[in-house]
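Teaching assistant's notes for section 4

Start the section by putting this record on the projector. Ask students to predict, before seeing the second block, whether OmpA family protein will look compact or extended. Collect guesses on the board.
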Amino acid sequence: MPRFFRLLLFCGLLLTLGLPATVRAQQKTTLPNSQRKLSAKVIRQMRTRLDATPLFPNVNRVAYFRDKKALRAIQKAEKRKNWPAARNLLELYVGQFGIENFYRDTPMLWHLGQLWDKTGNPERAKAYYRLALKHRRQGLSKVQQYYDSLEHRDTVLYVPLKTYYDLVEYRKNIATFRPPKGVYTSMGDAINSKREDYGPTLNADADLLIFSSKRKTRGLNNVTDEDLYQSRRENGLWTEAEPLPKPINSPYNEGSACISKDGTTLYFTRCECPTCHGNCDLYVSNFKDGKWTMPKTLGPNVNSGAWDSQPTLSPGEDTLYFASDRLGGFGLSDIWFTVKQKNGEWSRAQNMGPVVNTRESEVSPFYHPLYHVLYFSSRGQLLNFGDFDIYKTYRVRGRWQEPINIGPLVNGKGSEYYFTIDADSKNLYYARSEQKDLKNLDLYSFPLPMEAQPTATTHVEGSLIDSVSRRPLNGIVSIIDTDNGIEVASKYLRDDGSFDFDLMEGSHYVMLIQSPDFFSVEKSFALQGDTVLKLMTNAIDYKLPLVFKNIEFDQDKATIRASMHPILDRIAVFMVDHPTFRLNISGHTDSKGDPDFNLTLSQDRAEAIRRYIEQKGKLPPNRIESMGYGSEKPLREDERTKEDARTNRRVEFRLLKPDGGDNDEPFKADPFPGTKPAAPGKPEPQPTGGDGW
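Reveal the predicted structure now:
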C-alpha cells in the first residue's frame, strides 16, 4: 500500500470534532451565525512578532557538533559560578547543534534553560525547555516541572467542547449575544464515493478541488488503484469528480497534490513505480497546449530512498515543503523543504529544524497561499488534544516561531491531518470517517475558527477580579466576532483571573464571561492593536439576599418600569446560563397603609418580576418562586424616617444552587493530565562533572 496514505489508516476517525450536525454540501442550507467572507480591511492586517525561539543554522550542515575545548570553558565558568558567562558560552555552543545533538545532548538544552531562568529571562528559558521536552528520548520530569512553573501564567485552558456547546445551546432562544456553532459539511455525493476519498487541495480561486481516491480497482485481482481526481465549483455546487487524465494518473499510485497559483504546474506523489527512488517520490507536471506534460521526478536532490510526500508551495512558489521519513531527521517523519534555484532546478532538501520537527512525527504541511504561515500536523508538540493535531507556525524575519495548536474546535481526541485551507481563510477541507463506517474516508469542510486564522495575531489579554475583595474570580470567557461570525474557542479564567486570546485586528467583538459566582459580564470592543482589559464585578454571596436600588415601583403599582430592565435582564441571562439553579423572589413594603393591601401589592410585584424574568429567559415556570410579605419582615423595625421606609420597601432575590452544592465545576478548569505543581524552590544550576554532557 502506498505510504502517502499509510498514516490515514491509523486514524479511524480523523477529525473528532464533537459536532452533532452534518450538512450535505449540495443542499443550499442557510446556517445561523454562519461565518461571512472577511473584509479586505481585515485580510490585510497581520501583526507578527519574534518570540524567543533560537536559530540553529548548523542542522543542515553537520550531523553532530562537538568541541571539547568549548565544553571545558563552559565547565570552568560554572565552577566559578559565573552564571552569565556560562550561559553565554553554552548558548554559543548549543547554537551550533546538528540534528543528532538534540537527542544525544538534550541535557544541555534544559541546562541552558535553567541558566536563562536564573539570570532573569523566563521567555528564553521556556524556549530551551520546550526544545528539551520535544526531543527527549527519556523521561525528563524535572524539565517538565521547570517548564510548567514558568508557563503557568500563560497556560491555555480551553473549555471542553460539550461544556462550550451547552452554553451555546442555553442561549439560543434569548435575545443576547451567543457564540456561533460550527457545522462540518460533507462535500457531497458528486465528490465523495463509497471508497476512501482524502488529501484535498484547492487552486487559488477555490473553484478547483483536486483530491486522492481509492474508488477504482485494476487487474483481475481488483487491486486498489489510488488516483487523483478533480471537481469544479459551478454556481455554488461541485461538479461530478473526474480522474485527472494520463499521464498524471498511471498504472501506479498517485495522490497528495498541490497546484501553482496560475493552475499550470502540479506537484504530486507517485508510489511504487520503476523510476521512484524510494517507496513514494515527488513529481511535477505542467499544463501546456491544453494537456498535462509527462510527469518528471524532482530528482535525487529532493527525493530519497524512503517516503517523500504531501507537497505544498510557499506563496512565492520558490520553496516546496513536504513530509519525509528519510534517515537523518529528528523523528519518525519530519517536514523538509527545497528551494528553486536560478536554473529552475530544486536544491538539496533541507530539514525545517528542531522547532517544527520533534522526536515524533510531523506530516501534512500546508503553506497558506497569502501569508507566511505554515500549517502542519504533529504528535510531538507540547500542547496536544489527541493523536495528530494541526498546528500553525509563523515565519518572522526568516525564523519559524514556536508552533501554535489551532485549538479544540478542530483538534479532537483522534487525528487531524491531510487538509487544506482556501485563500480567503473561510473553510478547512479535510478527510474524516463516520462512526458507522470508520474505514470509508470522505471529504468535508468546516468553518475555519479564530485559532486557525492566519491573521489572528493581535493579542488581547485581561483579568477579572471581585470589586470588593479584589480576589480573582473563576469563570468561562467567550469571544464573539460580531463582524465575521468566526467561531472562537472559549477558555477558563486562570487561577489568577487572567485570560488571553489572539484575534483579528479591525473587527468588533463581544466578550462574555460567565460563572455562578457573579452575573455574566459582557463587554463590546473594536480591536485596534494589542489590548489589555482590567475588569471588575461584584461576586454573589449566596448566604445573603440580593437587593438592587434600581428595582423601584411606582407608588401603589406593580408595573415593571423600564429602569428595571437592565437588572432583570441580567438575572434572566444568569438563569439561562445556569439551567439547574433556581430563584426565590420576595416582595416587601413599608409599614404605611393597610396591611392587607400591602400584602397583596408585594405579592403582585413579586409575581410581575417572576413573569418578566420567565418571559425574557424563556424559562419553565417551576424554576422561580415568588412570594409577597407586605410589611411583615422589615429590615428596620422602627420605621421613623423616609430612609427607613425606603429600606423596608424592597424586592429580595435569592439564587439557589441545586442540592445545596457548588455546581460550579463546569466553570473551573481542571489541571492538565500529568502536570504536577512546580517545586517551591528552584535550585541553582549545577555544573556537570568531567566531560559528561
